[in-house]
Design goal:
- This protein has 328 residues and is of the alpha/beta class.
- It has twelve helices and twelve strands.
- It has two domains: 226 residues, Rossmann fold (3-Layer(aba) Sandwich); 72 residues, no CATH class.
- Strands 6-7-8-3-9-10-12-11 form an eight-stranded mixed β-sheet, sandwiched between helices. The protein has a four-stranded antiparallel β-sheet with strand order 2-1-4-5, covered by helices on one side.
- Helix 4 packs parallel to helix 7 and helix 7 runs parallel beside helix 8.
- It starts with 5 loop residues before the first strand and ends in a 12-residue tail after the last strand.
Length: 328
């Protein structure tokens, strides 16, 4: 794994509880991201996917206790000061967030917001930064970039605002771009346009791409590798094509079954995952998915299954995996 762009090992994030046990938001997560790769991390809300990426970026509140390792090209990011992290944010790793309307400053013109990112990392003059802002908007295929530079966020559509966020993230040509639910708030057509743009920029700039999403269709269409998280842990990981053909973890299978399909009869109820998502402050002994799993047995409730590579390139954490006879 020495040639990995980002190497995360045993990452753990804990938040203080309110009169209860501490909340284990991320519990022993390990993975690698390689240059030019598209890695998708999927799971339900509260599974820990966003918190794990914010931990890597150093964007968690001071109350969060972060342990483990996250090395970017050999440099340990966990434990760096804010000033040290700023040298890596933007220049090496950048992040695009879910809601551009909340991320952009409503009182600043678009061009000034992009220019601010350019000046922060390149020490460019005001004129140079404004010129680069126009070029960045042109890079993300923003129509009439010179005009958009003097407009405010409320004057742009949701898709345009997301292009602005991508332009800001690309201001320093990062080696790794993390897209955290970057298309969730957009309509289907705009989602496809933004994803095609990200893949085009990935190929042009040679960067790696991490997609944080609850959308398995997105992972199937665009990712090289898929990680499935549940209750703060990775429960399955495989190349995208293999994962969708040979799902092993019952939770992953349940996510697949919950995807709306055109061939379902009209007015037929959508499949749902039974039970309730786990409380990260009160995780039971054993497999966290056992209370909701149709394949759960006594051993599932007795001890948590380890995440292991059972087939070449395919890791899962389950005592009774789908499609594998017990004992194999």
């Amino acid at each position: 794994m020495s040639d990995a762009l980002l190497e995360v090992q045993d990452l753990r994030v804990t938040f203080p509880g309110r009169g209860r046990h501490d909340v284990r938001a991320v519990d022993g997560v390990s993975y690698c991201v390689y240059a030019g790769q598209t890695l998708a991390i999927v799971g339900e809300s509260g599974s820990g996917k966003t918190v794990s990426c914010r931990a890597v970026m150093g964007l968690l509140p001071p109350s969060a206790a972060v342990a483990g390792s996250a090395r970017f090209q050999g440099v340990q990011l966990i434990g760096l000061t804010d000033d040290q992290l700023r040298e890596h944010r933007g220049a090496n790793v950048a992040m695009v967030f879910q809601d551009p309307a909340r991320s952009l400053n409503p009182t600043m013109r678009i061009g000034n917001q992009i220019a601010e990112a350019v000046k922060t990392h390149h020490h460019a003059s005001k004129a140079q930064a404004k010129e680069q802002a126009v070029e960045l908007l042109r890079l993300v295929h923003m129509p009439l970039p010179e005009r958009r530079c003097v407009e405010y966020p409320h004057q742009l559509s949701g898709g345009m605002r997301q292009r602005v966020m991508i332009a800001i993230a690309l201001a320093c040509r990062p080696r790794l771009l993390i897209a955290d639910e970057a298309t969730t708030a957009l309509d289907v057509t705009t989602q496809a346009q933004i994803m095609e743009l990200l893949l085009e920029l990935q190929a042009e700039l040679g960067m790696a791409l991490m997609l944080i999403s609850h959308d398995l269709g997105l992972a199937a269409s665009y990712a090289d590798e898929v990680i499935v998280m549940y209750a703060g842990r990775i429960v399955e990981q495989a190349p995208a094509a293999r994962l969708f053909e040979q799902v092993r973890m019952p939770y992953t299978q349940a996510l697949f079954e919950a995807i709306p399909r055109l061939e379902r009869p009209a007015h037929a109820p959508l499949p749902v995952i039974g039970g309730r998502p786990p409380d990260a402050a009160m995780l039971a002994q054993g497999c966290s998915f056992a209370p909701r799993c149709r394949r759960a047995a006594d051993d599932c409730r007795a001890a948590a299954p380890p995440l292991a590579e059972h087939e070449p390139g395919h890791r899962w954490a389950c005592w009774h995996p789908v499609g594998v006879p017990d004992g194999d």
